[in-house]
Specification:
This protein has 219 residues and is an alpha/beta fold. It folds into two domains: 19-45; 57-209, 3-Layer(aba) Sandwich (Glutaredoxin), CATH 3.40.30. It contains six helices and seven strands. It has helices at 15-47, 88-91, 106-121, 135-145, 159-164, 191-216, and strands at residues 66-67, 84-85, 96-101, 126-131, 151-155, 171-175, 181-186. The chain has a five-stranded mixed beta sheet. The longest helix is centred in the N-terminal third of the chain and has 33 residues, at 15-47. The chain is globular.
Length: 219
Amino acid sequence: MTNPHVPEPGSTMDDEEAGGLASLLKVALPLLAFAVIVGFFVWGLIFGKPREIPSVLIGKPVPAFQLPPLEGTRTPDGKPVPGLSSDDLKKVPGVKMVSFFASWCTGCLDEHPFLMELARRRVMPIYGISYKDEPQKSLAWLNRHGNPYERIGVDLKGRVGIDFGVYGIPESFFIDERGVIIYKYIGPLNPRAWQEKVLPALKDARTKAGQAAAAAQPH
């Protein structure tokens, strides 16, 4: 006697079995695709070079933004530290740095002494953006570790960070006098990174800008 639940050789699945298989595939295939994507992402973080991921904004104007100040911060002479906007980045001559930071960011703490040293030496204007951090926590963090920023904008929801293409802080953007992003560094800055990565990149960007300006001149 044949088992009524086991298809005989040459028979096909009934509608109920086919429907069950289709439901299983609907669940399994998205999970499999997600696992593949996560696998590639993890592989890139481990074996790739995340700090060398190019930004699509290099060579383009900074996104338009206007951020309120971090209330309670003061300049060395006791004046309130102003907020930050994209227009501010075009008013100051030369290259300036925009640093995304937060009190919860361990990498920000690692790089902070170097930023303080850059500010002390007045290497270039440094502007800060408090990224997805409670203002009082950012304020307490700066009061504890020092404030290297001439301007600070509060990006509480992270929307400006999205426009800049930020995906993990600290991230530093270098902007020229035209308000154009000429370089982006991902991760904590330190003297070695500054000498080996940042300065050569800035020099190369300035050389290319000069060549482009010379080529645009009428002959």
